[in-house]
Design a protein that fits this description.
The protein has one domain: Isochorismatase-like (Rossmann fold, 3-Layer(aba) Sandwich). It is an alpha/beta fold. A six-stranded parallel beta sheet has the order 3-2-1-4-5-6. The protein is globular, with a radius of gyration of 15 Å. The chain contains five helices and six strands; from the N terminus they run βαββαβαβαβα. α3 runs parallel beside α4. The two termini are about 25 Å apart. The structure holds pyrazine-2-carboxylic acid and zinc ion. The site of pyrazine-2-carboxylic acid has 8 residues, from α3. Zinc ion (ZN) binds next to loops.
Length: about 180
């Protein structure tokens, strides 16, 4: 059984947001098109308290309950079966979806018989990478959909370094067209 994981496709990580990822909005139609190929679809949300230490490293973003923490309006969120909230404590960064505090992602996926996890979303060099590395660690066959992610690139080349690190641990890089069988993308 395979599952789609949509990491942090939230307003604050898209153009106009407080921690905008260049091209962050471009992943949305790609992710929407992938949904039809999956029975199990889950998402994560960065979900910070206002006074988190995380905001010493980053501009405030994805504050719990704020509009910036909402999913991008074009994301077809009706297909998401469960959303895992992370970075919820004021002492943790919570980069990985597997660090969610409202429910345990590994337990949820294993309960659905999921063996293969397809990771998409924002941002390649932080939460996507952390989630993909944890997915491998937790025993999932892990795929990174390259055209369904975008990077912050605090330092130029962070995206390439993140992809290399993921590949080294066994994450398989693929294109969305290999899943949808649609050459038009
Ligand atoms: C993220 C930086 C800070 C992410 C979250 O979702 O990749 N990056 N908080
Ligand atoms: Zn954050």
């Amino acid at each position: 059984m395979k599952a789609l994981l949509i990491v942090d496709v939230q307003n604050d990580f898209c153009p106009g947001g407080t921690l905008a990822v260049p091209g962050g909005n471009k992943v949305v139609p790609v992710i929407n098109s992938l949904m039809a190929a999956f029975e199990v679809i889950v998402a994560s949300k960065d979900w910070h308290p206002r006074d988190t230490v995380h905001f010493k490293k980053w501009p405030p973003h994805c504050v719990q309950g704020s509009p910036g923490a909402d999913f991008h309006p074009a994301l077809d969120a009706s297909k998401i079966q469960k959303t895992f909230l992370k970075g919820t404590l004021n002492k943790d960064d919570g980069y990985s979806a597997f660090e969610a505090t409202n429910d345990d992602l590994t337990h949820f996926l294993k309960g659905k018989g999921v063996t293969d996890l397809y990771v998409t979303g924002l941002a390649t060099d932080y939460c996507v990478k952390a989630s993909a590395l944890d997915a491998e660690k937790n025993g999932f066959e892990t795929y990174l959909v390259e055209d369904a992610v975008a990077a912050v690139n605090v330092r130029p080349g962070d995206d390439e370094r993140a992809l290399r690190e993921m590949r080294k641990t066994g994450v398989v890089l693929i294109q969305s067209s290999e899943i949808t069988g649609d050459g038009s993308m």
